[in-house]
């Protein structure tokens, strides 16, 4: 079972979303409960709450305020895998819960402090 506690990620692909490789995501996990925060790029401040639903699957709710003052919220379902170098990868299918209620896909890679 993968664990996201004290892990950081950046976007490597985000179809129709706001986050970019300038956005840092910080996750915390206690048992199956996931929380987190994110900021950078077009996002002034964001928060995450969710749960691990299987050994490599998660469901998240997220909300943020953009640098333009827009309030956004959404939901996502994702998978956790490891790449060939051992870094965790997150892949999501997500939907906005407000505004135009469109959605997209995104992929993130773990940042490892050196």
Structure description:
The chain has 114 residues and is mainly β. It has a single domain, classed as Lipocalin (Beta Barrel). Helix content is 0%, strand content 64%. The protein contains no helices and eight strands. An eight-stranded antiparallel barrel has the order 1-2-3-4-5-6-7-8. Strand 7 and strand 8 form a beta hairpin. The chain is globular and about 35 Å long. The model has no long low-confidence stretch (mean pLDDT 95).
Total number of domains: 1
Q: What does the oligomeric state look like here?
A: single chain
CATH architecture level-2 label:
Beta Barrel
Q: Which stretches are low in confidence, meaning pLDDT under 50 for 5 or more residues running?
A: none
Give the overall form: globular
Order of helices and strands: EEEEEEEE
The helix content is: under 10%
Q: How many β strands by DSSP?
A: 8
CATH superfamily label:
Avidin-like
Q: In this structure, how is the largest beta sheet organized?
A: 8 strands, antiparallel, barrel
Average pLDDT taken over every residue: 95
C-alpha-based Rg, rounded: 13 Å
Features:
Lipocalin, 114 residues, globular, mainly beta
List the helices and strands and how they pair.
Layout: E1 7-14, E2 24-30, E3 33-40, E4 43-52, E5 57-66, E6 71-82, E7 88-96, E8 103-111
Antiparallel strand pairs: 1-2, 1-8, 2-3, 3-4, 4-5, 5-6, 6-7, 7-8
């Amino acid at each position: 079972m993968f664990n996201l506690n004290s892990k950081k990620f950046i976007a490597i692909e985000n179809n129709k979303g706001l986050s970019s490789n300038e956005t840092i995501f910080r996750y915390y996990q206690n048992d199956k409960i996931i929380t987190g925060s994110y900021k950078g790029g077009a996002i002034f401040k964001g928060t995450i709450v969710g749960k691990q639903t299987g050994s490599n699957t998660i469901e998240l709710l997220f909300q943020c305020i953009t640098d333009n003052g827009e309030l956004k919220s959404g939901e996502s379902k994702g998978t956790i895998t490891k790449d060939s170098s051992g870094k965790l990868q997150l892949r999501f299918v997500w939907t906005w819960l407000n505004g135009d209620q469109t959605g997209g896909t995104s992929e993130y890679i773990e940042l490892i402090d050196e």
